[in-house]
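Quick illustration, no need to memorize.
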Amino acid sequence: MTFANRRVISMNMRPRLRSRIVRSLFLIAMVGSLGADLATADWPSWRGPRQNGVATDRGLISSWSPAGKNVIWHADLAGRSTPIVIGGRVCANGRAGSGVSRQETVACFDAATGKKLWERHLDIYLTAVPWSRVGWENLTGDPATGDLYDLGVGGVLTCFDRDGKVRWWRSLTEEFGLISGVGGRTHSPIVDEDRLVVSFVNAGWGDQGPPRDRTFAFNKHTGELLWTSTPNQPPLDTNTQTTPIVTVIGGQRLIVEPQADGWVNALKARSGEKVWQYQLSKGALNNTAAFDGDRVFASHGEENLDAGTQGRVVAIDGRRGRNAL
């Protein structure tokens, strides 16, 4: 992940290096040149400012080492998610404590110095996720307000202000029957306009009854539920982790997400109305989609629909939900 001539090391890296960092050091900030704009650019979600995984920075360093080469600061925080950068802060979630006092944590550091600005500990409820996988999802920040959003492994969705005070929270497990996958994979929310959007497999009563991988949009300021969208098929696996992306295609603002039923779904971002679906796999989809212009790119490692092979990358016409190639 790159930002303003510096990088923060993600926990989504090679397993051997990741396990080493989980035990000892979590954040490493590095620069190619120490400019005055050290803490000015935002990387508010793990896919970047446009949710497309593209960084436009120049002059980045080409090498670093945990021993100190090109390292400005580091901070101890055990976890496995990608840090974000927002408003001069580096923020990440993780885990702390031992025995019955084990908790999830959310912390923010000064991006220039590494000084810890605040840390909050959150209780974990109603989950079979192993302790080593707590702190899986990626935080999301809102550049317009400075607020920070966290979805814990126990299904508690929390909004923090820039000083770490809780603005609002909702227990998605208690309210909507969020199903916590035993593998620990947890969806990351995204901010779009005045909405906070997140998907998860749930089951409950009424129109929330049958288990489905549903998409929910909340008012980012208050937590009020704005809309829910339900795909047509039962989930093939509850242990999924894709993140929605937002793009404008054909004049429509769309939320696009591969989901647990093996389909890629495109919804109208402001209402949740389904625009198109594309069946990609016989298994649940775990990879977040990407976009370029009117094309949506999706991939998977499950069994293909038309052969006994596994894995595929497709380009979808984002206007119609059909193969683009």
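Confidence is low (pLDDT under 50) at residues 1-26, 31-39.
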